[in-house]
Amino acid sequence: VYKRNDATWAQEAYIKSINNDGGDHFGIGVSLDQDTLAVTASYEDSNQSTITNGATASTDNSIPASGAVYVYKRTGSTWAQEAYIKAANPDDSDWFGERSLSLDEDTLAVGALFEDSNQTTITNGTTASTDNSASRAGAVYVYKRSGSNWAQEAYIKAANSETYDSFGQ
pTM, whole model, 2 decimals? Predict the structure, then answer.
């Protein structure tokens, strides 16, 4: 992370995921808003299906390329991990966070272009479909921060979701 002071740029932080592994693609997507930075690792492999608020992350690599998003918060000039976010329905090769991530104040949207659910509606809340009958249909997950805690607010699927749509790309 670089910060400008008048006309001079200087490195403020060097950020790595706490559970980094070769091939995770940490940093393939980034979004910065004020003092919050969201970073994707679309090939991250953990089997976690929840959000960890705080500075830890799963090291169980049993779901290859399921993907993850790490949220960092700056206080003064110090950056610290605020959350480790996984899809509520992680699956092999979903690529959660690949090519699509947007952060605006306390709202984060994350695409999973190879998510496989056949659902054709929006689910408000913290759940997501585990029916994997529409290969690579894609999905978008919306998260909301309250204080320093993140929670899933919605799981969005296209109304005409079909195999290979890659919705959320």
Answer: 0.96
If 0-12 CB within 10 Å is exposed, 13-18 middle and 19+ buried, where does residue 14 land?
Answer: exposed
How many Cβ atoms are within 10 Å of 136's Cβ, its own excluded?
A: 19
Single-letter amino acid, residue 150: W
- Scanning the structure block, which residue is given the tokens 């749509």? 165
Q: How many CB atoms lie within 10 A of CB 124?
A: 12
Place of tokens 């090291």: 59
CA distance 49 to 126: 11
Instruction: Supply the DSSP symbol for 102.
Output: E
Please tell me the number of Cα atoms within 13 Å of 7 on its side-chain side.
0
* Mean model confidence pLDDT for the chain: 96
As given in the structure block, the two tokens for residue 11 are 């490195």
Separation CA 56–CA 134 (nearest Å): 33
According to DSSP, the residues that pair with 39 across neighbouring strands are: 30, 70
